[in-house]
Amino acid sequence: MNRISKFQFTALLLITDLFSLCCFGSVSLGTLWGILAAAAVQYLAAMCFAVQGGALKKWAQVFFLVYAVFSGGALFVSLWRTRSVVYIPYEASHGIWGSLMTAGLIALVCLYASSTGIRLVARAAVIAAAMALLSLSVDLVSAVFNAEWSNVSLPEKRGLLSEIMRGFGLSGSLGSMAVWLDSVKGDKSKALTAYFGAKAAAAAAVMLTVLPVVGGIMELTDFPVITAAQLSQPFEAQRIDSLFMVVFSVLAIFSVTLQVMTGAYLLGELIPRFQRWRSLTVIALVIGAAFIINGRELLTARACAAAAALLIAPVGAKKSAAKGSG
Amino acid sequence: MEKKRLLSSLDRSIDEIRRISGGSSDVLINRFVTGGIHCALLCCEGMVSASVITELIFEPITDIPQQKDSHGLFHYINEELLLSTDRPEVGDYDTLFQLMNSGFAVLLAEGMTTGLAFGVQGYNTRGVQEPLGEGNIMGAHEGFTETVRTNMSQIRRRIKSPELVMELSKRGDKSYTDICLCYMKDRVPKALMERIRRSLDRVELEAVLTTGYLRPFVENGSFELFDSTGTTERPDVLCSKLIEGRVALLVDGVPYAIVIPRLFCESFQTLDDYAYKPYYATFIRWLKYGAFLIAVLLPSFYVAIVMYHPELLNSTLFMLLVDSEKKAPLSIVTEAFFVLIMYEVIREAGVRLPKPVGGAVSIISGLIIGDAAVNSGLVSTPLLTMTALSVLGGLVVPELNPQVTVLRFVFLAAGGALGLFGISLLACGVLVNICATEDYGFPYMAPLSPFKRSGMGDTAVRSGIKKLQSRGFTVEEYHE
Q: What's the pLDDT tens digit per position in B50-99?
């Protein structure tokens, strides 16, 4: 298996979480606590897996393959849902063909990216994540000038348990974490600490800038993070939310690529003879899954799947780490 | 050519040489008797210096006293006369022709199955001149020439350390081109040298006429947009690369050296950076990064924003663009393609045409594009301004010009078809490709990704020379 550094590992996983965060529904301060609490629970479970260590058993591989396909499909659905606020030419006006075109174009880039291997995609992911964080911080720091700080303490609509569940649903990359953790160079627990630390910090930063800007109009917006980016303009006579559009697309592509690579790797492990069309098969499955789950409420399913992934990872780990080919 | 041993009979040997050369007019055979032995001195016309051959070969060789046989004659020449510093022995016709065609004079004697060769090269070559493609203000003004040995001497003049090794060999079944592998033996890992030698062993070309013939053999075979090997025509730049533990390849007849491996960040570094104060060098470096992005992305962003995301423009700018674009008969994408293709045609014409005609091309292109096209309303002024800025940006990083040119067109198509979403998709593809570029285990995007903090001192900024000195950098730090 190819070896990646802890920063590359963190960047790969963080991108998926950032994209999910961009597509998140209405938020409040309770959402932030929910995300942080969910991240803390996930961190503890992931540390158990890191201590257990090693490659996954066959049945666990099957589970994580299904999980990757489901997560990839959920990412496509999130992308389609944001079409009303993030303008993709031709997509909205062409109905299902528009959705298919968007999916097809993303699939093409994912196919190429996944053909290069996890080590090389991880290198690109570091640059993409750095650019995304930089652009998001420019966008969101500029939001501070349009902020209404009293919005932070607006009354909660959901209970903490419900918010923790939403926080769990934010984690589409847990399957990839379980699969690729074995390929991280050096101390695995440090890599997990870096990832969950970065995730918590990014979520806190985004939430604390989104709430003051969008808090007052939370009822009117479906995607508060995107709305916050659109409302936050550092220059009086110039809008910069195109920057957000670029970042959003980049995050979407790398998120889907990660799921496709995870699925393709697991498919190769499960059926060693099936090497040539693995990525294409997984992409087709992901797009198929996206069409099946499109229009359904996925939060509970995603939260349950994430919880199951965290339980199955340590149970499904082999005692000794067998090295396969990446 | 057949590896046939030299014949002992001088007459038959000369007949054989005439047969192999097909009676070529530039093969000169001078027969004479010295020391009582029949001899022949062979050379290739135009490849030897007439004065050197007269002074160093003919004059001493005709004064040789009587010898009892040919062995005695060769022994006398070898032991008593110092005719030339470069004196290889010839045993077969293949070697004989290789040496003769490289400017050696070959002495054959009756009864001998070997010959003596003397290096008396004297062919006309271009002198050392200022390099045309890599301008420099504060550094040396010497560039490589077409003669590999002159280039070797230019490197040796700058690095006198015995650690600098230059290995000469020949490639090309017909051209027998001299190629020289240069490296610092204390800096380059042995494994890397072995891998490069193995790559070069795969060269089975008939002729090696430019560096482009060899580069595919030392580069990764997969599809890469950017070159993982570089070229330079400056000996000082090459020396800095050698000291950093890289390997260079000089090719006879080409005033460029191949540098292995090459990194992306190096395209933005010049020797002048190290002559200026660090703050100014850092500023210039970031200017180049910005210029590269402008060169690739500006036309596509302009087209994407005007066509699909006009809300991003402020009202004044928006009205200005509307006012100028409404007069243009073509769509913005077609206009942009038209202007860029026109520029590429003019550039190519300027490069290929004879210099006296080049001025005329500049005037015509200036009139056509700068004036007539705008006045006739065929092209809008803002678009022309964006395109000109993009082209100028590309000229700041000349080494990446092929990539910038093609990417500019591809991004323009993506932006024109799918707006910023299309640009983002393509950017991801390019980013993955550029990060996947790797040769001999050296990632092209190092030290950015994989991130090496120590490398940032000469990438994100240009640290002071004292700090760089203490770092003791070799490219091996980036090996994965």
A: 888 888 888 888 788 888 888 888 888 888 876 677 788 899 999 999 89
B435 and A239 within 8 Å at the Cβ level: the answer is: no
Distance CA(B86)–CA(B81), nearest Å, equals 13
B111 φ/ψ sector (left φ>0, alpha ψ -120 to 50, else beta): left
Listed in sequence order, the DSSP H helices in chain A are: 6-22, 29-52, 58-81, 95-116, 118-143, 160-169, 174-180, 188-214, 224-231, 241-270, 278-293, 299-315
Per-residue pLDDT at B473:
83
Chain A nearest C-alpha distance from B291 (Å): 18
Chain B partners within 8 Å of A87 (Cβ):
308-309, 419, 421
The verdict on residue A53 lying in a domain is yes
Q: Which token pair is B181?
A: 């592998």
A255 domain-assigned? yes
Contact A120 B432 (CB under 8 A): yes
Work out the angle at residue B28's Cα, subtended by the Cα atoms of residues B26 and B29, and round it to the nearest 5 degrees. Answer: 155
φ/ψ bin of B175: left (φ > 0), alpha (ψ from -120 to 50), beta (otherwise): alpha
Domain boundaries, chain B: 10-119, 148-262, 274-436
Judged on CB neighbours under 10 Å (0-12, 13-18, 19+), B441 is middle
- Residue-wise burial string across B392-410, b where 16 or more C-beta atoms lie within 10 A, e elsewhere: ebbebbebbeebbbebbbb
Give just the sign of the alpha carbon dihedral B378, B382, B386, B391: positive
Taking the whole predicted model, whether its pTM rises above 0.90 is answered as: no
Distance in Å from the first CA to the final CA of chain A? 4
Look at the block and give the residue holding tokens 């390099």: B131
Task: Give a yes or no: residue A323 inside a domain.
Answer: no
Select the residue from B426, B430, B431 to test the A interface by mutation, using most A Cβ atoms within 10 A: B431
Q: Which residues make beta-bridge pairs with B105?
A: B118
CB of A190 less than 8 A from some CB of B:
no
- Of B12 and B329, the one with more pLDDT: B12
Instruction: Report the CATH number at residue A102.
Output: 1.20.1740.10
What ipTM score was computed for the predicted complex, to two decimals? 0.89
* B257-260, strands of its sheet edge to edge: B164-171, B177-184, B247-251, B257-260, B230-232
How many folded domains does chain A comprise?
A: 1
Q: What is the DSSP letter of B56?
A: I
Distance from CA of A163 to the nearest CA of B (A): 32
Mean pLDDT value of segment A219-241: 76
Q: How many CB atoms lie within 10 A of CB B268?
A: 20
- Does A121 touch chain B if contact means CB atoms closer than 8 Å? yes
Residues of A in contact with B434 (CB under 8 A): 124
The pLDDT of residue A237 is: 60
Return d(Cα A18, Cα A255) in angstroms, integer. Answer: 9
pLDDT value at B24 more than 50: yes
DSSP one-letter string for B157-202: HH---TTEEEEEEEE-TTT-EEEEEEEETTTS-HHHHHHHHHHHHT
pLDDT at B2: 57
Domain membership of residue A322 (yes or no) is: no
Cβ of A128 under 8 Å from any chain B Cβ? Answer: yes
